[in-house]
Specification:
Elements lengths: L24 E6 L10 H10 L3 E7 L9 E8 L3 E2 L2 E2 L6 E2 L6 E7 L1 E7 L5 E7 L3 E4 L4 E6 L5 E8 L4 E2 L1 H6 L3 E6 L2 E6 L8
Antiparallel strand pairs: 1-2, 2-3, 3-12, 4-5, 6-13, 7-10, 7-12, 8-9, 8-11, 14-15
Bound molecules: manganese (II) ion.
Manganese (II) ion binds next to loops.
Length: 195
């Protein structure tokens, strides 16, 4: 898809209720595509016996991966849990590690869970009308801790690239779990020192 001319200005509509756009390309992630990422493997299997829920989707505009351009779009994380763990995105590092990203929360609540290759972690609450800065070198994942869809607008350097594999293999150091009806940050006991 390359319907926009990224050498000139253009407008894109995003529906404020759904985060969707008539012109953006939607990518949907179902539980079966990310079952290794949840802490409670038994809870994953139990859910998948009956259905394969949509966990999140993102909408992108086909920005060329050129230095200087800004890719942007929306991410929607649906409400729900796998065992005690809230629905979340896979998360990724940028291939060009020294590239940051901005996310703006349009609706819902949750966490931006971040960590760098040295193992420093950041867990920042997300709430409507706040933007969060994801610094260079930090892998980032969004988690929906609320009862409605978590809707975010994002923008990042178009040539940043996405590295899903590193964090997919090791997992994140921190998990966002429900304890006594509220979201807590917990250590990931399954975090792998070396893949
Ligand atoms: Mn990113």
């Amino acid at each position: 898809m390359n319907q926009f001319n990224w050498d000139t200005s253009f407008l894109v509509d995003f529906d404020i209720e759904t985060g969707r756009s008539k012109t953006a390309r939607a990518t949907k992630r179902y539980l079966s595509e990310m079952k290794e990422m949840y802490f409670d493997a038994r809870a994953v299997e139990k859910i998948l016996e009956n259905n394969d829920p949509l966990i999140y989707e993102f909408h992108e505009l086909g920005c060329p991966e050129r230095a200087g351009d800004l890719a942007f779009g929306t991410t929607i994380v649906y409400p729900g849990k796998v065992g005690k763990e809230y629905y979340m995105t896979k998360g990724h590092f940028h291939t060009v590690l020294d590239t940051a990203e901005v996310y703006y929360t349009l609706a819902g609540e949750g966490y931006m869970v971040m960590e760098n290759p040295e193992g420093d972690t950041l867990e920042i609450p997300l709430s409507k009308n706040q933007a969060v800065y994801v610094p260079r070198r930090y892998a980032h994942r969004t988690v929906n801790t609320g009862n409605e869809p978590l809707l975010l607008f994002y923008t990042f350097a178009a040539d940043a690239g996405h590295d899903y594999g590193t964090i997919e293999t090791k997992g994140y150091h921190k998990l966002i779990l429900e304890e006594n009806g509220r979201a807590v940050v917990a250590d990931n006991q399954k975090w792998k020192v070396s893949p």
